[in-house]
Amino acid sequence: NAGVMQNPRHLVRRRGQEARLRCSPMKGHSHVYWYRQLPEEGLKFMVYLQKENIIDESGMPKERFSAEFPKEGPSILRIQQVVRGDSAAYFCASSTDRAPTGELFFGEGSRLTVL
Amino acid sequence: AQSVTQLDSHVSVSEGTPVLLRCNYSSSYSPSLFWYVQHPNKGLQLLLKYTSAATLVKGINGFEAEFKKSETSFHLTKPSAHMSDAAEYFCVVSALTGGGNKLTFGTGTQLKVEL
């Protein structure tokens, strides 16, 4: 049973380009969360999605960032016109719809470097 | 609102000696508390979780934590450190709301284990 799969593991972009990060949740999980980890900091919540729905995007920057979790395929975090401050590790986590203990399963992260 | 404070950003111990990583929490709800470990360039692995059952929680790799409501603490301990324990440790609080399992992370404690 594969865990949460994220790709690419490493991504380098120049300022102004677009970054697309993909996340396939664990089998049977319908809830996806994206977190960002800046250097020397803990993880910060960005967005929570269920299939075809954004449930909570209170942690998403107002501009340039978007996320989706389509009916088919992985969840995608999209960052348009990247800037150096977007350089970070982006982690995806998933859970079942019956996770009474709040436990999330994390992927290994996608590390974005903006030149 | 919920938050966690990890009192030490860096802890250094000798191999074979006890480990203590401190965490205090604040939560408006009855919290679920977790400790996650992150090895370099890896994802996060759940060490243990507290979900209002026994206050002393045992996790993987010999770690345990005690929930103390009167002190709002959830410190992580291990009787004898091993070199492989060197990693970053995150104390995490979760409050299940309509917004899902939104976890709030501490800033992390880097554990160094010396020979």
Fold and architecture overview:
The complex is a heterodimer of chains A (115) and B (115). Chain A is mostly beta strands. Chain A contains no helices and eleven strands. In chain A, the strands form two sheets. In chain A, strands 2, 4, 5, 6, 9, 10 and 11 form a seven-stranded mixed β-sheet that branches. Chain B is globular. In chain B, the strands form three sheets. In chain B, strands 2, 5, 6, 10, 11 and 12 form a six-stranded mixed β-sheet that branches. In chain B, strands 3-9-8-7 form a four-stranded antiparallel β-sheet, with no helix packed on it. A two-stranded antiparallel sheet of chain B has the order 1-4. The mean pLDDT of chain B is 90. In chain B, a hairpin with a 5-residue loop joins strand 7 (56-58) and strand 8.
Specify the number of helices of chain B: 0
Q: Helix/strand/pairing class of chain B, anyone? A: mainly beta
Average pLDDT confidence of chain B is 90
Largest sheet of chain A: 7 strands, mixed
Order of helices and strands of chain B: EEEEEEEEEEEE
Give the percentage of residues in beta strands of chain B: over 45%
Mean pLDDT of chain A: 91
Number of strands of chain B: 12
Largest sheet of chain B: 6 strands, mixed
Q: Spans of chain A with pLDDT under 50 lasting ≥5 residues?
A: none
Number of helices of chain A: 0
Radius of gyration of chain A: 13 Å
Order of H and E elements of chain A: EEEEEEEEEEE
Which two chains have the most extensive interface, and how many residues on each?
A: A-B, 28 and 25 residues
Low-confidence stretches of chain B: none
The percent of residues in helical segments of chain B reads under 10%
Instruction: Using the CA coordinates, give the radius of gyration of chain B.
Output: 14 Å
Shape by Cα distribution of chain A: globular
Distance between the termini of chain B: 41 Å
% residues in beta strands of chain A: over 45%
Subunit organisation of the chains:
heterodimer
